[in-house]
## 1
Amino acid sequence: MDPQEFLERIKSLESEALAGFAAASGADALEAARVRFLGSKGLLGEVSKLMAKLDKAARPEAGKALNGCRERVSSAFGAAKARLSTEPEAGDALDVTLPGRRLPAGHTHLITRTSREICSIFEKMGLAVTEGPEVETDYYNFEALNFPKDHPSRDMQQSLFLEEGLLLRTHTSGVQIRTMEKTRPPVWIVVPGKTYRRDDDLTHSPMFNQVEGLVVDRGITMADLKGVLAEFARKFFSESTKIRLRPSFFPFTEPSAEVDIACVSCGGKGCRICKGSGWLEVLGCGMVDPALYDYVGYDANEVSGFAFGIGVDRMAMLKYRLDSIGRFYSGDVRCMRQFPG
Ligand code: DAH
């Protein structure tokens, strides 16, 4: 056989095969082309048998051409296979009439939602949202709030210290001082934020959330404090919610009080939730101790004020009836998903 003729056979076989693979429009067509060109009884096999009919001298060159041809045809087959695996087949072309797939949408966490609910009730009464740092100095967290040097909450057992004089704030009350330092009265603020203590049980988490309130203005009395908190309880829980104030102590308020709400579960008759008392303790408050005014340069003869601190986690547990604070922080979305915000 004429070597030239052999080379031409290979060339035309190659262009036919390449066109065949490129045109294959589905898995079946591709397989048929594979059998036709690369199969054990296929055209490439047939042509290679013709080698035997060539002169010995012409064989090396013919063999080389044949191998090159086989490589290119094989890779054309591979490329066609890859193309078909990503392309939809004619039968399952895009159906634009199908409804779209809904992407899962998240929502705010119940604690975030509760904190915002609390703040927005106070915002409607004229208090402005303010924030402060979570890493706080001993001065703002304790000293300027009139905590004596040997006060138990300055103890390492409860507070998480980072270094001498620097800790994760144990409450949001330090923002009272930070704000009064920066502004002249009147001050009407609410301060949402994370707080930290070494506590961990059904109702305590080492990280929890508070909303602090501070109103300092001319002629503010305890009646204003009680009125604001009673209104808050009605708006947050329900219009019929009653509150009561019990004497208490905080270093930065004088007098100080704990506020109870009539039990959200039994309405005051006494049940398991309120341990039979009919009341639930929800927050601490009081009239700003004039000692604080000395730290920030306010004149105690001109202004007076009240402050309060609300535990957001506790409020959320009471309002949404959760049995453990761990529900908020365990990362198990099955619980939080019940409260889309
Ligand atoms: N800082 C207090 C605490 O974390 C709560 C508190 C009580 C805040 C009375 C106040 C207040 O502003 O007046 O336990």
## 2
Amino acid sequence: MKIKKICCIGAGYVGGPTMSVIADKCPDIQVEVVDLNEDRINQWNNEDFENLPIYEPGLAEIVKRCRGKNLHFSSLVREKIKTADIIFISVNTPTKKYGLGAGKASDLKWVERCAREVASYASGHTIVVEKSTLPVRTAEVIKTILQASTDSINSSSGIKTFDVLSNPEFLAEGSAVSDLLFPDRVLIGGENKKAIDALSNIYKKWVPEEKILHTNIWSSELAKLTSNAFLAQRISSINSISAICESTGADVREVSRAIGKDSRIGSKFLDSGPGFGGSCFKKDILNLVYLAKFYGLNEVADFWESVVNINAWHQSRISQLVIKNLFGTLAGKKIVILGFAFKANTNDTRESAAIQICKDLINEGAYLVINDPKVSPHQITNDLGMKQLSKISETESLNMYDGLGSWNYGENLDIEIFNDAYAILVLTEWPQYSSINWKEVAKKMIQPGWIFDSRSILDSEKVKNAELNFWRVGDGS
Ligand code: NAD
Ligand code: UGA
């Protein structure tokens, strides 16, 4: 099976970067990325490569090299399905909000819609690849939909056949390009050797053969969920230990370093922070919980659910200690929030710990000034479900405090942003926050000023030398 044309349905955080790298590494393949969201497609076609819809280090350069040559972005979903040899389904699979399985199961309506579109518009033989993260046995659903179409169409018009493969994506946002270029492994689950070889041959253009793993389709689907669950479990584990450190005088950074040196444990994913965010950890663990419950494995379900519960508890622990240290009231107090993205080097805020923490502080009556180098005020408005204050009402609101908290966008990280702040809270590890001049900041703040560092990126000595109170996660010293 020679692959000449790829169609990827979904131009999001996975589809966009993954297809860009494939196009760059396989100049002989035409890669068509399609999405129903026309705004997103227009942004991918933006003349200004700095304004692509997704910010990822190194991505703009690749898109610049390939776009218009063998990488194309459009909304022509049906047309591009028709001519593709291989179709990647890379659409969103969020937690279901309604009906059976609400709050835990994945909502597969977008995946089902894709399968139906592929069933209707594909021609000849097509390999359909699950790139989205899906519940175990979803491939069966996709196969059933495709099969139903071939049964009805092959009897009337030309022959249409399909292979379904699972090829989950393991990239992390903020390092997507390097994760795609140098993956720990590429996982391909499926039955038909010819189809598996055709997909493997694409990756072999840049990934060493021994890193391309072949499994059965169900193992591949389950391995993706398990991989995210294990990573998130490590973060909940170390965050739970951070609370013990703060109570006992231990330091979570020292504990992490000590345990991470054990080669059986390893040093990655042991940084205590404000709680894990991102679009996938919580949803994928809840999906695993749903699966375990479905099969009557209630103890297994409880075990994994506790990883999510600790994460929520840890986030609320951070807001509570801010309130406690500011004398139990935030009414009308200005707090500067440094970072809103769920991690550095991305503009993504999905499930960011900053969302819940900011909501908690606003509920206590605080006035937040939120800075993030990549997140727009529009996005923060959507996430907080609250418009920012107009500049005129800002003074009014602070002078005549009426019990309602509020927020404003702090676009520039200049010294004025800290004027009259009672506290500063670091929520994302953007490197620019590490070089703030704390002596200058202290002069602008209301005393006693507090600095809360949930990412452990600040130099504690410099903050303390500026006569500011300092808290950082897991530091019991
Ligand atoms: P996303 O929301 O950024 O992008 C999905 C895109 O699919 C959207 O632009 C949406 O408009 C489009 N879409 C939905 N239905 C469509 C349809 N029928 N036709 C055409 N376009 C359609 O999502 P994402 O972050 O790229 O995640 C996609 C999948 O990959 C999810 O299953 C996720 O769990 C998984 N995943 C995500 C990451 C990550 O870092 N974000 C990493 C690994 C795996
Ligand atoms: C994660 C996985 O790392 C990817 O392998 C996976 O493909 C992806 O989910 C997915 O399926 O969506 P991502 O969520 O993009 O990637 O980013 P991570 O680097 O895993 O960070 C997730 C969250 O954990 C962030 O909020 C981060 O700040 C936090 N984190 C990470 C910690 O608090 N401590 C750590 O040591 C590491």
